[in-house]
Write a structure and sequence with these properties.
With 245 residues, this protein is an alpha/beta fold. The protein is built from seven helices and nine strands. The chain has one domain: Rossmann fold (3-Layer(aba) Sandwich). The protein is globular.
Length: 245
């Protein structure tokens, strides 16, 4: 991990950009974090395009820092300045054609679009976790929040250092993700926008029903994809406070 910049934000949060094996990322730490009082870590997922997602990611990180958590994020494979995949671009084009025609999106298209992303992103997140937890001001337990739900499920399933997860409901879910959801047992807090124009509500409900966790909460709010109310974020922060502190 190589830090490339450092900024001190007004609320005492330290924001550091880094690269890890040429993958861009950002780490936010609260001003209270130190080697004698390390902060628990939350991994911030997102749907891709670190630069475009920065305002929302920084907002989530600063909210978490106010609760005493460090936060970190990575650029997804094929996003930002990272090399694109021809097969993924083809699958994305097929997805858009189906949506524009008002046709159902075939499972083969979903698998071709999402599964290669999961296969590449999850090992990168685990490598990042190794590097982040080696920093003296950061410690476990670790939480995962948001992003592509299939990545979050796979990562939480294979990474024992993740103790709890906040997942953002999404409808383009490969079949294998449902199988993995049945085996997931950590505490879960799932956010669902009831009128999300980008997601199939029933798929999100079916996936929630599939989760094997004994503690799982579905937090559904009226509104579209970007209309998540502030109090939903507050509830997610309370969830992490219960499980990571």
């Amino acid at each position: 991990m190589h830090f490339t910049s450092e900024r001190h934000l007004e609320d005492g949060v330290v924001e550091r950009e880094f690269t890890l094996d040429e993958i861009p990322g950002i780490l936010w730490t609260p001003g209270s974090a130190s080697s004698s009082a390390p902060a628990p870590l939350i991994l911030l997922g997102h749907p891709g395009g670190l630069h475009g997602m920065y305002p929302r990611l920084a907002g989530r990180a600063r909210h978490s820092a106010a609760e005493g958590f460090a936060s970190a994020t990575l650029e997804l494979p094929g996003s930002g300045d990272r090399p694109r995949s021809a097969s993924t671009d083809q699958a994305r084009a097929a997805l858009h054609r189906a949506l524009e025609a008002g046709e159902p999106v075939g499972q083969d298209v979903i698998d071709a679009l999402v599964l290669p992303l999961v296969e590449r992103a999850v090992p990168e997140w685990r490598t990042a976790l190794d590097a982040l937890l080696a920093l003296p001001e950061i410690d476990g337990p670790v939480g995962y929040s948001g992003g592509v739900i299939s990545i979050g499920i796979r990562l939480a399933l294979v990474e024992p250092r993740i103790a709890a997860a906040v997942l953002f409901a999404g409808s383009f879910v490969p079949r294998v993700t449902f199988d993995e959801a049945r085996r997931l047992t950590i505490p879960l807090h799932v956010l669902l926008q009831w009128d999300d124009e980008s997601n199939d509500r029933q798929v999100a409900l079916d996936l929630f029903d599939t989760f094997g966790s004994k503690e799982k909460t579905l937090h559904a709010n009226m509104g579209g994809h970007t209309g998540v109310p502030q109090y939903a974020g507050d509830a997610a922060a309370q969830f992490f406070t219960r499980h990571l502190k």
